[in-house]
Amino acid sequence: MLERRWSPGRALEFSAVVRPLRRGPGDPAFQVDARGTWLAGNTVAGPGTLCVRVAGGEVLAAGWGPGADVLLDGLPALLGAEDDDSDFTAHHPVVAEVRRRRPGLRLGSTGRVWDVLLAAVLEQKVTGTEAHRSWRELARRFGVAAPGPAPDGMRVPPTAAAVLGIPSWEWHKAGVDHARRRAIIGAAQVAGRLEGAAQLRGVAGRELLRKVPGVGVWTAAEVAQRAWGDPDAVSIGDFHLAGLVGYALTGAVFDDAAMIAALGPYAPQRHRAAVYILAAGLGKPRKAPRFSPRDYRRM
């Protein structure tokens, strides 16, 4: 076991900063118990597990496995230490109010692309229930056990190499359709090169990800938000985001074009503005039934 203590030196809303890394209830790579928040992931040094808790304004972390050093070195960035919001200006009262009330709401970055890319592709054009089920199935069948005294059943997501070895019927059993499977395999074949997106950052990093067939604007933005805390990566094409932004700002439901126009004054920090807007919790009224999850295992 390796340990690290880190003092943020400013407000830190820990749970909100790490929440985007959790892929639904029962995520095998993200668990919380009395000991702290547990995260399992792949690094250049191998799999690793991180357990993090906050006590007295100080962050206490422990790591296990070959990737422990990498995960502990990345702890400050994971919790938003590299997030610079000094040039951000609120242009709407709801944004200004959330920013005032929640100064510890930061954009964290893992510094690693593959794990978040795999999860983001699984979330393309399906319900969260479907995507999270597939994530759990793939992690349990093709990931490795999380190193250290992690909670029971905790797993490291499958590596790119492991993904390339998954036979077609196993994809079907995990509920992953052909389009998403093709995009994941394409990304796995060039996973080493895609890690460079986290160093390029910004538009260049997102464009590198989009060179993979099947990785579009939405998927690249979802990865950029988590892998390098991209403050301008808006999830264009998201089923809910435009409507939630529109309702919070004007009381009307926006489409993507209207959302981008409304967020225009916030460039190059449009994603940060969207985070503040969502944090306000002003959900739009539901006027239609929820989509029923599809089970590709039965097709």
From TrEMBL:
InterPro entries: Alkylbase_DNA_Glycosylase/TA (IPR051912), DNA_glycosylase (IPR011257). Keywords: DNA damage, DNA repair. The keyword Glycoprotein does not apply. The keyword DNA damage applies. Gene3D superfamilies: Hypothetical protein, domain 2 (1.10.340.30). PANTHER family: DNA GLYCOSYLASE, DNA-3-METHYLADENINE GLYCOSYLASE. This is DNA-3-methyladenine glycosylase family protein.
